[in-house]
Amino acid sequence: MTTSVVHCPALFLTAPASNQGKTTITAALARYFTNQGKVVRVFKTGPDYLDPQILAQASKQPVEQLDIWMAGEEYCQDKLYQAAQVADLILVEGAMGMFDGEPSSADLAARFGIPMAIVMDVKGMAQTAAAVATGLANFRDDVQVAGLIANRCGSERHAELIRDALPANLPLLATLKRDEEITLPERHLGLVQADEVKDELEIRFEAAVEWLKETKDTGLLELPTAVPFYPANQVDAKQTIEQSLLGKTIAVAKDSAFSFIYDANLIALKSLGANVVFFSPLHDQALPDADALWLPGGYPELHTKALSENTTMRQAIKDFFQTGKGILAECGGMLYSLDDLTDLDNQCYPMLGILEGQGAMRGKRGCQGMQTAVIPQGEIRGHAHHRSRSANTPEPVGYGRRQRHPAPGEAIYQQKGLTASYLHLFFPSNLDVTAKIFLGKGN
């Protein structure tokens, strides 16, 4: 790999708040340029499983997370540099509002010199949209703003009022009309998983391309300015990785009940020497021949009956647990590990019973946030995002350490080779701890 600077057009899609249309517009742009034969690499800021599925289908390329706290600056720099070597365009979708979080989307964009486009739902305002965009653009000197994307713009007159109110150095990149046919489908924890609505998404992506073409302001339909991307410090970004999982096979649960899987985590396991195979707790009758299991998060609460009735698989996982081999159960995977789970319809079903306790959904109230898992094997970073609760569980071996709050975070349980928690771990943040978790009681 060359160690010289690489230039690549890049744009960072941000917004004043959530629910402004960032994912829809990022996906539309990715498909627009992909249809032109361009290689588009999309990144998502922060911990997210569902948006990357959508964006990967739109761009027909893998999508990974960029987060300075969770992954580190050198990791993010290395990922961008690798992408710049193969891409014609890099798009980064931000999280929440432009300056929300520590670090924020603006912090990431400023660190790597990527210009930001502000996506704003302008329904119900005109000149005020220009005022808000101007305030965001001038809030920090180290952030470069390429312009405003006015989403859900009612008419050309509406667009004109916004355009005329913007300063000369803050152009209106696009005015996108209101169109509910473009909006991506949602669910209680975010967007619906791409695999569930693949054909519908294809229709919406292509409709979104035509939607983009209708804008009277064409700045968004041209490749943005090329940004210089530099190689990361090789000592930090490419540490000599001990292949402590060499020769080990890790079976990963993957189906419509369990799908919250970072591509970066799979890459990390392979870098440790592991062979990764997949299985379905919903449909398969037997486990693959494996040395460790990973039960990731997902939507087990939508499949409680089917998971419970697959008694052959439940017994297979119970037998595996008794061997003391490594099992990582994250969030939905932890709920599956409990004695029983009460779903959204208040129906209770038996689950694996490898971790004492009961799980239950709790409507719209939830828990989320960045945390560091503190366990006997060491510390590893991750995040929590759930709308369920657990009760009557055993004594934890540790807790998550919250990023900005002194109260204990999520409880973490270990029994035999099982590590279970509501936390979704980001393996690249500590490969040594990752390996020890999957090695189970023999580590």
UniProtKB/TrEMBL annotation:
Does the UniProt entry include the keyword Transmembrane helix? Answer: no
GO-annotated biological processes: cobalamin biosynthetic process
Provide the cofactor list for this protein. Mg(2+)
Q: Which residues form the CobQ/CobB/MinD/ParA nucleotide binding domain?
A: 12-189
Gene Ontology terms, MF aspect: ATP binding; cobyrinic acid a,c-diamide synthase activity
Stored CDD domains: GATase1_CobB
Question: One Pfam family name from the record?
Answer: CbiA
Q: Which family does it belong to?
A: Belongs to the CobB/CobQ family. CobQ subfamily.
By its UniProt entry, which PANTHER family does this protein fall under? Answer: COBYRINATE A,C-DIAMIDE SYNTHASE
**Designated name of the protein:** Cobyrinic acid a,c-diamide synthase
